[in-house]
Design goal:
The complex is a heterodimer.
Chain A (H helix, E strand, L loop, with lengths): L3 E4 L2 E4 L5 E7 L5 E7 L5 E9 L2 E4 L6 E3 L9 E3 L8 E8 L9 E2 L3 E5 L1
Parallel strand pairs in A: 2-11
Antiparallel strand pairs in A: 1-3, 3-8, 4-5, 4-9, 5-6, 7-8, 9-10, 9-11
Chain B lengths: L8 E5 L4 E6 L8 E7 L6 E6 L4 E2 L4 E4 L5 E6 L8 E8 L12 E6 L1
Parallel strand pairs in B: 1-9
Antiparallel strand pairs in B: 2-7, 3-4, 3-8, 5-6, 6-7, 8-9
The chains are: A mainly beta, B mainly beta.
Amino acid sequence: NAGVTQTPKFQVLKTGQSMTLQCAQDMNHEYMSWYRQDPGMGLRLIHYSVGAGITDQGEVPNGYNVSRSTTEDFPLRLLSAAPSQTSVYFCASSYSLGRYNEQFFGPGTRLTVL
Amino acid sequence: DAKTTQPPSMDCAEGRAANLPCNHSTISGNEYVYWYRQIHSQGPQYIIHGLKNNETNEMASLIITEDRKSSTLILPHATLRDTAVYYCIVGPSGNTPLVFGKGTRLSVIA
């Protein structure tokens, strides 16, 4: 299994540009989520999904869109990039949001918005 | 907001046990205690979880107090590769995802 994969690893955008961060998992996990991590900070939840076709907002959803058309993929869309969105983005998945919640994280996408 | 309180940083000598404390005084009866760690800028990695009883795996031991209001993660023989940020997390509750705080930055010193 490849686990959780994220592309691209690095990205530089100009203010106002849009882009999609890709996340895929091959473990047949129901639950997927996106976090952002700013320097010296913990992870903050952006959006999450408990299954295909179902998404919900986390702590910091503004400026981001998600959709979950398949179990495997959970892309994160930046609608109009702003310098405040400069961060490292992590995607995670787990079998379910049940009582045992071991999340598997991807390697991250490092995004800089100029 | 995170439901846990951890010291911002700790040091440990290489080869010694690292004991990382965590307070979670508002934990509810059906919530688990999870520990994750993040080495440098990699994605967080699951370490261990527990509900009431002490737990041990190949990476660490988790000691939960009887009233469940605090816990300690123990790395029995810390190595330089254990230098990382360690997150203590309580959850999930229903369909609420894990909430990460700032964690404890553990520095293992040679």
